[in-house]
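User: My notes are a mess, but here's the protein and zinc ion's SMILES. Can you give me a structure?
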Amino acid sequence: MARADTLARARTLDRPPLAYLVRFPTPDGSRDMELTWAELARDTAWVTARLREHGLTAGQRALLTTSGFEGFWGHAVIGALRALKVPYGIAEAMGWDHRRTAVFHRELAPHAVIGLSAETLEGLAGAADLGEMFRTTPLVLARPAAVPVLRGVGVTASVIATVGPALALECPERGGAHVNAAEWRVGVRDGQLSVAAGEERVSPLPETPLGIAGDVLTGRCACGSEDPRVLFAEANQSLSARS
Ligand SMILES: [Zn+2]
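Assistant: No problem, the inputs look usable. Here's the predicted complex:
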């Protein structure tokens, strides 16, 4: 049977609604949530809009650093890059794979680097000048712990981070990382972030503390979005305070 026929037949098969089991850490262990393909499609549409706000457009290139277990948001980012027609390379976000990030950065000359981790930066710092490497990258979306490291070498980064099963993505205003209010509720209690699933999610999740220090800003952002903004304490620490 020809390959095209096989694919056409495969498309007619029933697809189970479950895309991922999302496991995220909580102060007293971990929680599991189901993520359906329909939810993933909505998350992808939201990420696409956020990346478009950052000016990402067809023909530019991107480098995504993410780990396999982060597929629940990595898949949404990849879907967004495809929707925007932005070719991308993927490197593992764990420190041992920092050389792949260096090679992709050199070969792709990406417009955007998405998901930079402190571990990747630590690995790169031994062989490269981080400031020289990323100051010329127009869009750097980094994890909270990586943001002060980048700031220390003169690189302006916006935050990308998980808030439990939700993704937070900072807009160009850089006044906190937005979380999709149509899907999630984020809160703060005693300086610790919490998350709850919105009614649209298939897996119920009552308000769940996450053991992540931070704050939540509500009200309209200067970018025009009403989505709440998460401030991660880790992203706002000075380097001297970390060490
Ligand atoms: Zn905003």
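The chain has a mean pLDDT of 94.
User: Great, I'll file this with my notes.
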